[in-house]
Structure formats: C-alpha cells, structure tokens
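Form 7-S
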Amino acid sequence: ESMTKQDCEAHINVLCSTLAPCNPLKDGSKAVWVGAAQFNDEQSFSEIMENADSALMAATKQPHGWQFASELSHIHSNTAWRERLNQILDQQYADILIQPVMNVEKNHTRLFRGVRTI
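Output:
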C-alpha cells in the first residue's frame, strides 16, 4: 500500500509502543523491533528482504525500536557476500575448513564452525 513516510512512521510508532510492553526481555530491553523498507516491482525478492533485514538489524540498536532502510548508509547484503565468497573460492584465494565442535560428555557434535584461510 502506498503511503507517505510520515504516515508509515506514525503507524510504526503505534505498533512499537503497543507491542513493546507485551513481552519485555529480562533486562528490560524492548522485545519488539521493526524494520521498514520501500520496494518496487523492479527489485528482486532478495534485494527487498536484504533491505528489510538491514533495517531490522539496525532497529535493535535504536531507542525507539524501528528503522527505515532508506535511512541506512549501508545495506548488509547476503547475496553480495555469497558472490564475493564464491569468487574467492573459485580463484582459490582461500580455503574454508569446517570444524566440528563436540560435546565430549555426550560424544556428539554440537555445531560446525567454519574457518577460513587466505
């Protein structure tokens, strides 16, 4: 739905003020964050989601609990990182080693950690 930035900001403020006290974290921080991003039909789904995710990530550090993607100086792009990592691997500039992190008491793998060497 097309709306002005001011109307969007007003709606976000109402959402944040309504939802923030619903489930506060133990340390008293906000439990609700909102990231807002404008989009158009020419953008791919991943571009739209990267903008929204970047705004959401920035919102966690804002006192009011929300952030517009259009006001960010940098968008965190998983697609761009994936392309760059693939380029590095294709050109054999780096090796990525996968190392298991074990729970020795239960003798099972808890997670895998990636290590890169350049």
